[in-house]
Amino acid sequence: MTNPQATLEESRNQRARSIALSAVEGRHIAPAGVVSYTSRGRVLVVGGEEAYWLAARVQEPLHAEVLLTTGAVEPGVPTTPLGGRRIAVSGHLGAFRLELGEPGHHNREVLNADLLVDLGETALFDCEILPPGYTRSGREPADIDNALVALDGMVGTFEKPRYFAYDPSICAHSRAGQPGCTRCIDSCPADAIVSIGERIEVNPNLCQGGGICATACPTGAIRYAYPDPGETADHVRTLLRSYLDAGGTDPVVMFASAEDAADLPTTPPHVLLVPVEELASVGHEIWLASLAWGARCVVLVDGGTVPPKSHAALTHQVAICHALLAGMQLDSAALRYIDSARVTADCRACDGLPGPATFAASADKRELATLALDHLWLHGDARPQSFGLPDGAPYGRLHVDADRCTLCMGCTSVCPAKALSAGNETPRLDFFEGNCVQCGLCAAACPEQAITLEARYLADPEVRRRPQLLNEEPPFCCVQCGKPFATRKVIDNILGKLAGHAMFASDRARRRLQMCEDCRVVDAVQDDDAMQSGITLPPRNPANTSK
Question: Tens digits of per-residue pLDDT, 395-430?
């Protein structure tokens, strides 16, 4: 027998969903920029004798050459025999470069091409998302036919959106030569991100918009730009608000790539589908904000388009989010990562989530996540002050071994998130846990190895806003003028490390190490031995000589 109440609710939800979808319909997504490729039609076919069969069928305006890996050279097609040389390949559509042989050897040769067809036994590229213009093909007639189809029309200038934006000022990759976060590099399925010293560099021509780099980034230094995360957040907020205002109940927000969304089965009327360019481009701040804005569940649907690297990183992000929900004693099933076959059966709403929040959408990753988590905590039944998180989570605290720490403040100079702060007049180290992204730069930079990290979430907003004192010592005062300028431990450490050094063999020179920077300069120029020996004055900040 049909349940009249259930039928009425379904009808109301259907109407509410229609209103909500109309509220976000027609929103234009403008790319942050475009990336251009130019192909002049130079096709390089790499393989054995079967490469000639493909090359002979390439038609103008394309023109083909062969890099022959095995077999005899045939006339009619320009050919470069590999001759057992090593192949190093790089590039993309319009700019492929193949280096044959070892640098500096007489048989070294460089080939350039706009399009690359690979018929070899081992793929030239081993990344999960291949560069534009590269076709990996089998050697059967049907495979070669498909490769020819992929080449068709590939002459001229082509454009795609620029999928990312990068702010190096808040990047936690490296500071002062110390290694830090590599999450974006490790998770990129296109191998488009590399380290260049203290920052990363994204090759826009290799980037195919997978988006996992932005999801894995703890600071928001790299963010998805098609659309901007603020636009995605505002889209979800408007969708939920319109649905709830129209009388809809138990909304479930479902994210899927546009490619997968087109093939999804019909969903119940309380499910609000949000197609995105790539599933991995939507991170935990959007998931949590969706729950805070009234969603009773967030479902991530993978129809098989998420590459393995992205899948692994996305699974880890989901595990962190599950730990955040469980730590606040909310149902972790409110976030689900499923395959498309489970869509119909796994759309149920969860109980126990608080009512919808009113905070605005934000493009700032940390800000949006904090607003969402604060709402879920403040309106939840349980309010734990803190709880543990899995390793690699972008939240946590630091432990400082006071017996080792000299308060040199090397950690404060490398922190990209302003989580560490030095005292003003008193030598002290303060910590703002709400800012910490657990990048590890502080621990790497500490010359005394006094810092360890602990992944956790400090949920109480009032406690999180207050600085925590990690270490403090009385100041050491200049033996000449009495001005405080370091700590006793720093001075003792410097004296110990320079004991026996020829530059500081005399009592006067060693006493100079216990002076402030101004008094050291005055004393040095008045010391005939120091001036005649031509020694260099110690650094102006003795606290940093321990590094």
Answer: 999 999 999 998 989 999 999 999 999 977 788 999
pLDDT computed for residue 377 by the predictor: 96
Q: Which residue would you say has higher pLDDT here, 510 or 216?
A: 216
Spatial distance between the Cα atoms of 161 and 183, rounded to a whole number of angstroms: 23
- Our CA angle for 381, 369, 298, nearest 5°, is 70
One domain for residues 169 and 151:
no
**pLDDT of 14 above 70:** yes
Q: Is the backbone peptide bond immediately before 141 cis, with ω within 30 degrees of 0?
A: no
Same domain, 438 and 452: yes
Split at pLDDT 50, 70, 90, the class of 224 is very high
Same domain, 266 and 402: no
The answer to whether residues 379 and 246 belong to one domain is: yes
Q: Which of 128, 136, 124 is nearest to 280 (CA)?
A: 128
The CATH number of the domain holding residue 455 is 3.30.70.3270
Query: Is residue 243 domain-shared with residue 380, that is, in the same domain?
Result: yes
Is the same domain home to 245 and 372?
yes
Q: Where are the beta strands (DSSP E) in 181-322?
A: 193-195, 200-202, 222-224, 252-257, 271-276, 297-302
- Burial 167-197, CB ≥16 within 10 A → b, else e: eeebbbbbbeebebbbbbbebbbbbbbeeee
75 CB contacts (<8 Å, ≥6 apart)? Answer: none
Report the alpha-carbon distance of residue 484 to residue 493 in Å, rounded. 17
What's the pLDDT tens digit per position in 20-64? 999 999 877 777 799 999 999 999 999 999 999 999 999 999 999
Where is the domain boundary, 159, 192, 212?
A: 159
pLDDT at 290 over 90: yes
Residue 391 falls inside a structural domain: no
Q: How many CB atoms lie within 10 A of CB 359?
A: 15
Nearest to 117 by CA among 95, 137, 90: 137
* Residue 107: inside a domain: yes
Q: Tell which wins on pLDDT, 498 or 161.
A: 161
* Full domain range(s) for residue 373: 4-28+239-384
Query: What b-and-e string marks burial along 212-243, b requiring 16 or more CB atoms within 10 Å of the CB?
Result: bbbbbbbbbbbbbbbbbbebbbbbbbbbbbbb
* Confidence band of 533 (pLDDT split at 50, 70, 90): low
How far is the CA of 493 from the CAs of 77, 166, 404, 489, in angstroms?
72, 40, 11, 6
Confidence check: pLDDT of 546 > 50: no
Angle CA 166–198–436, to nearest 5: 70
Evaluate the omega torsion of the peptide bond into residue 227 and state whether it is cis, within 30 degrees of 0: yes
Structural domains counted in the chain: 5
**Mean pLDDT, rounded, of the chain:** 92
| Single-letter code of the amino acid located at 228 | D
